[in-house]
Design a protein that fits this description.
72 residues; mainly alpha; 2 helices
Amino acid sequence: MAESMAGEPLDELTERLERIAAELRSGELAPERAAALVDECARLAADAGAALDRDVRAADAAGPAGQLALEQ
């Protein structure tokens, strides 16, 4: 499993994003708290993107030139 720059597994980053999204959808947040959560979502999404990018690059490096390796 991929690890984020902060060392969190991709699944954990996804779960955190889902929890934050649910909190934002509740509509019961102060504007400052909502803004902080949006910033946190952006950071987590960037971490998840970096983790996915590392996975793709690692798979590409392991497989034939120009082809991604299939996971077993």
